[in-house]
Design brief:
It comes from Geomonas diazotrophica. This is DUF190 domain-containing protein. The protein has three helices and eight strands; from the N terminus they run αβββαββββαβ. It is of the alpha+beta class. It has a four-stranded antiparallel β-sheet, with helices on one face.
């Protein structure tokens, strides 16, 4: 019964079903107003009331300049790839995109349709 109640709560929040996944690819050293860009973006999404945001640090990658970045000890990079993922309603995501683009200097933004199967708070202990 508890799972059903959480599922109903999710339905009321409008997160179940088709949503949009916003993916932002940046470098770990990227800044916005002297703070890490990934932190500024997460705070933007939180302050705008988004359902959630996750920051992932890559172990290797390259971007538009084809410069290889890795976490291997012999070639330790201080600019590892970072990915910020946000899932929410298309209208909400598209509304914040101009602000996100204005915060970025380089990088890549992608959007794709996703199906949200579950979105619920953790059960209390």
């Amino acid at each position: 019964m508890k799972d059903r109640d959480m599922s109903l709560e999710s339905d009321r929040n409008g997160m179940l079903g088709e949503q949009v996944l916003l993916r932002i690819f940046i470098g770990e050293r990227d800044k916005y107003k002297h703070i890490p860009l990934y932190e500024a973006l997460v705070e933007l999404f939180r302050s705008e009331g988004f359902a959630g945001a996750t920051v992932l640090r890559g172990v290797a990658g390259f971007g538009a300049h084809s410069m290889y970045h890795t976490d291997r000890l012999l070639r330790l990079s201080t600019d590892l790839p970072m990915v910020i993922e946000v899932v929410d309603d298309r209208t909400r995501v598209e509304a914040v995109l101009p602000t996100v683009e204005g915060m970025m200097d380089g990088g890549m933004i992608t959007l794709e349709k996703v199906q949200v199967w579950r979105y619920a708070k953790k059960r209390s202990a």
